[in-house]
Amino acid sequence: MSNLTAFITGITGQDGSYLAELLIQKGYTVHGLVHRPDALASSNIGHLVANPAILGKQLLLHNGSFEDATHLRRIIAKARPAEFYHLAGQSSPRISLELPEATVDSIGMGTLRLLEILRDLPDPTRFLYASSSEVFGSPSHSPQNELTPINPTTPYGAAKAFSQHMARIYRIAYQLPTCSVILYNHESPRRSGSFVTMKIARAAARIKRGLQNDLVLGSLSGRRDWGWAPDYVLGMWQMLQCDPVDDFILASGVLHSVEELVASAFQVVDLDWHDYVKHDRNLVMTVEPLAPCGNPSKAKRLLGWENTVPFDAMVGHLVESELSKLPA
Fold it and tell me: What secondary structure does DSSP assign to 263-322, as a single string?
């Protein structure tokens, strides 16, 4: 592809920052939408922003909100990206139960506005939407694949499903190269501290350093399909190189419980987790998806993609990163 120009929403998030790095390494000019320019220095792309060889040359940042269609239309029309990665949006199923209207507007209508803008561009832009395993809700079978019925159980999942459907509709109705990646849990040291993986990794590190006494969690029996975030970002890029583009599940295909996550994290710091973990029933979600496990065989077969970092190694990376931020 001659025009190596990409646009990323959510560029300061975990996935957006890894994707920006990957694309810059591949010679792309990367445009990113940022909501809080004052916080860039301490964000996940702080190191890119601080590099004068990159900022303003390979990395061009635009202030604004993807809810503002008029402003966004101007930015995108000027950038004319060959590839568009829509990663931004409210990211918590739990919060979506408290703020359903804000969630649906942020995720669903935000995506629709982008698709309408891209439909008007003179040259077709390859568009990837970051969907979620939450679209399957509590699936009747496991593992799930690209043909599993969509049946969300949270406003977050429903909004993701709407966006995923709209991307498919624009592919069919307007012949736009649009696709969705159905992402299962994927972690890295850049993951927000609100996620249970980082909450556990941070607590293990702080307890080891004597800065915290215990870790309070809800259910330890909940299971997830956890993978390594940089691998998943590579998969997103690989998806947009396909012709024609198509939807894919990116997952490790292996389930682990929260208890296994806790045990692995505390093993890194050589502590017995039973001595420090406490239970709080108020932290148990009212709607708990039933063991969402993805089948990544289509991605492996057609993209050559797979999750390369095993579960314990992933947890080790998280804990070691947290330890490195603390005084010895």
Answer: HHHHHHTT--GGGTEEE-GGGS-SS--S---B--HHHHHHH-----S-HHHHHHHHHHHH
Confirm whether pTM is higher than 0.90.
Answer: yes
Q: From the candidates 17, 43, 91, 132, give the one annotated as an active-site residue.
A: 132
Q: Does the annotation count 134 as an active-site position?
A: yes
Bigger pLDDT: 6 or 91? 6
In the chain, how long is the greatest CA-to-CA distance?
62
Active-site residue flag, 67: no
Tokens encoding 138: 């509590």
> Could you say which of 21, 134, 187, 322 is catalytic?
134
Each residue of 63-74: b (16+ CB within 10 Å) or e? ebebeebeebbe
Which one is catalytic: 85, 156, 170, 232? 156
CA dist 32 and 60 (Å) reads: 6
Under the banding of pLDDT at 50, 70 and 90, the label for residue 1 is: very low
Which 3-state string (H, E, C) describes 241-268? CCCCCCCEEECCCCCEEHHHHHHHHHHH
Look at residue 218 in the predicted model and tell me its pLDDT. 87
Length in residues, the chain: 328
At residue 328, the pLDDT reads 81
Determine whether 156 is an active site residue: yes
The predicted pLDDT at position 286 comes to: 55
In angstroms, rounded to a whole number, what is the distance separating the alpha carbons of residues 238 and 245?
10
200-235 per-position pLDDT tens digit: 999 999 999 999 999 999 889 889 999 999 999 999
- Ordered by where they begin, the domains of the chain are 5-186+226-250 (3.40.50.720), 192-224+254-291+310-324 (3.90.25.10)
